[in-house]
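Handover notes (outgoing to incoming on-call)

Open items:
1. ATP synthase subunit b: sequence verified, structure written out, both below. Nothing else pending on this one.
2. Nothing else urgent.
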Amino acid sequence: MNLNATLFAQMVVFLILAWFVMKFVWPPLIRALDERARKIADGLAAAEKGKSDLADAQKRIDKSLAEARDQGQDRIAQAEKRAQQAAEEIKANAQAEAARIMAAAKADADQQLVNAREALRGEVAALAVKGAEQILRREVDQKTHADLLNQLKAEL
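ATP synthase subunit b structure tokens:
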């Protein structure tokens, strides 16, 4: 065989093999590599999206916690305000009750004083009449006696 013919035959076989590889083997390999690259890119994009979603979720959580803290502080402040108002109301009620009790006690004391004065006037009048009766050693009639007592009460 001739060296040129062998070289030419090998070149033809190589070209046929290259054409066969480019036509039937290379496209599925390229598709598989492209699909793998797309999957990797999708995975990286999903990871980035997951990171951003996580960051967003963390921001929402932080915001919710801040709102909850603020609401808690507001509720505590309102409760303290209500407690203070209740204490002031109780204090005002106690002061009003004390004033009412004092007024009732004063009225009762005034009434007892008036009653005691009336009783004393009666006793003093009776003693005065009894003393006058003993001095005069005579008895005064009932009508005169009552008039004298009323007159003495009025003077006292």
